[in-house]
Structures are given as C-alpha cells and as structure tokens.
Design brief:
Layout lengths: L2 H8 L20 H11 E3 L12 H6 L6 H11 L14 E3 L1 H14 L4 E8 L7 E11 L3 E5 L27 E3 H9 L8 E3 L4 E2 L1 H15 L8 E2 L15 H16 L2 H10 L8 E6 L3 E6 L9
Parallel strand pairs: 1-2, 4-7
Antiparallel strand pairs: 3-4, 3-6, 4-5, 7-8, 9-10, 10-11
Helix pairs in contact: 2-5, 6-7, 6-8, 7-8
C-alpha cells in the first residue's frame, strides 16, 4: 500500500470522526478486539428479540437515523456512563444497523492506527439463496492486504439466539460477502437474479437496490459513509426504484461497479472526483424507514470537494 492510500484510510471522515478523544482512552488496538468492543456497544435494531428483550418504539424508530460516530457515542454514553470498554446490557447499547457496526469499527481502527474503510454489499449468510443488503468493515492487514470483518456477527455471550456461521466473522470470505459492484456485474451479465438481492426480512428486492448500493459503496471507498437509505445522482431510482437508468447512467454504473470491485485507490478517487452523478452532494434524499422521504443536508466540509 502506497503512503497516499494508507494516509487516506487512516484519516477520519466527517462521518467516522469519534470526537472527544478522552473517552477513547485505553482502547485495544487489534482489529478483532475492536470488533468485539463494537459488538458490546451496539445492537442491531432488528435483533433485540435475539437477546430476549424489546426496544422502546421511539428508539427503534429513531436511533438508526444517527449519521455520525460522535453522535452515536454520545448516545452510548448517555445510555450508560461507564467507559466504552465496560460491558453493557443489550438495551444500554446504541440501536442501529449493520452500517453503524461497520462505521464504528472503522472509526476505532483509524483511531488506533489501522487503515480501514467500510464496504456496502450483500451477505449470503442471513437467508439461504438470498443476497442480503449488508455493510461490513475492510481493514489493511500488514501481511494479507485488505481483510473483511463483520463486527455485527461477532459471538456475544448475552445473545439468546446466536447466529450460525460456517466461517470466522472476523475474516469474512469474499464469496460470502459480495461488494455491491460484484452483485451489479452478476445481475447485468445474467449470472444472478436481481430478485435475490435486497432485504429479505422486509421483502424488498430488485436491481434498483443493487444500483443504489454500487453508488454507496463507491462513496464509502471515498470516505463518504452515508446511511443505507440515502440516495443521489445515478443511484437514486426513487423509493421503489421506478425510475429506470438511461444508457449513459448504466454505463456510469458499470464503470463504478468495475472500479469498486477492483478497488484500485487511484481509480476509486479519480472516478469519484470526476463524476458528479456518483459523488455525494451536500444534500441527499433520505428514504427513511418511518418518517418517509426527506432532503438532508450533510455536515461539511465535504471530502468529495477536496
């Protein structure tokens, strides 16, 4: 890894900056230990039942809309004022989504000296024969290169209904998690059915979701780590994907898919910089789960404008 790439992925983004360095004292530094720490600070809003508890409706609806890691950690500390390394009951954890697990892990890796980024794509380990919308961490291993890690799937002694995996979630095989661009390529070339990509528990599926995730993954590779329901530019097909892309948009999406699968740093940066239809704008459309569609102005300064 060249110095420019290493420095880029060691630098916090607007979204990942944890703020208040004092509360990050005495953290472990290993990727696996940090993943376990994240598992003990967060709960996925859809998995409370696995812990034998139920989230208050207000928290279930609202916390996952929190975009920035400093705000997420503020909620964590408000729920339980103990140091971040202290054990927490499931209901004293931030209730978010897979994106929040990945981004917090990424933030802590960057803070402790490991280059890291998050990836938007599809996991094959939630529902048989289905590619579930999912976000995980990718970090730079000094000997192995980029390694995928899924902090949400780390075993937790408090969980009553544990996940069953046939691999180590701290070293996710590339064929068990497809980055969005690979999913797009397979759908475009007829190797996969777009109806097998989406969110199985919600019954949402189709090529329009893969389209949006290709754009989100490119953004994440450029340290613009948006929410899973944010959309803009060529990735925005409307709430139900009714707006089909034209030929020029399809060509741009194909190129974004190619570049994100290869993940060549210079190509990733250049395509993002030179393509307004792919780059995250100052204001995005957010198709929120409960409050409906809205326009959200993001914090600045924007990395994409640098």
């Amino acid at each position: 890894m060249l110095p420019a790439e290493r420095d880029f992925y060691l630098t916090q983004s607007v979204h990942s900056d944890p703020g208040m360095a004092a509360r990050l004292a005495e953290l472990p530094t290993g990727p696996d230990e940090l993943a376990l720490l994240v598992r003990h600070l967060l709960i996925h809003r859809e998995e409370a039942g696995r812990y034998g508890c139920a989230l208050p409706d207000s928290r279930y609806r609202s916390e996952a809309e929190t975009r920035y890691i400093d705000d997420i950690l503020d909620i964590v500390v408000r729920l339980d004022g103990a140091p971040l390394t202290a054990p927490r009951r499931p209901l004293d954890r931030f209730a978010g989504t897979c994106r929040d697990f990945a981004l917090l892990h990424c933030a802590l890796l960057r803070h402790t000296g490991t280059p890291a980024r998050i990836r938007c794509g599809y996991a094959t380990y939630f529902a048989e024969g289905f590619h579930d919308d999912h976000w995980i961490t990718e970090y730079a291993h000094p000997e192995r290169g980029w390694v995928l890690s899924d902090p949400q799937m780390v075993p937790d002694t408090r969980i009553e209904q544990p996940y069953t995996l046939d691999f180590d979630p701290l070293d996710v095989p590339r064929d068990r998690f497809l980055v969005a661009g690979e999913g797009w390529r397979r759908c475009r070339e007829g190797e996969a059915d777009p109806k097998t990509f989406g969110v199985s528990v919600l019954g949402l599926m189709g090529g329009w979701m893969v389209r949006a995730n290709v754009v989100r993954d490119l953004a994440a590779l450029n340290r613009d780590e948006v929410l899973p329901w944010d959309a803009w530019g060529v990735g925005d097909g409307g709430k139900d994907g009714a707006e089909e892309p034209g030929e020029e948009e399809l060509a741009l999406l194909d190129e974004a898919a190619r570049v994100t699968v290869a993940a060549d740093f210079d190509e990733v940066r250049a395509l993002y910089r030179d393509s307004p239809g792919l780059r995250v704008p100052a204001t995005v459309t957010s198709y929120q789960s409960f409050e409906g569609e809205c326009e959200v102005r993001l914090r600045g300064p924007r990395d994409s404008e640098g």
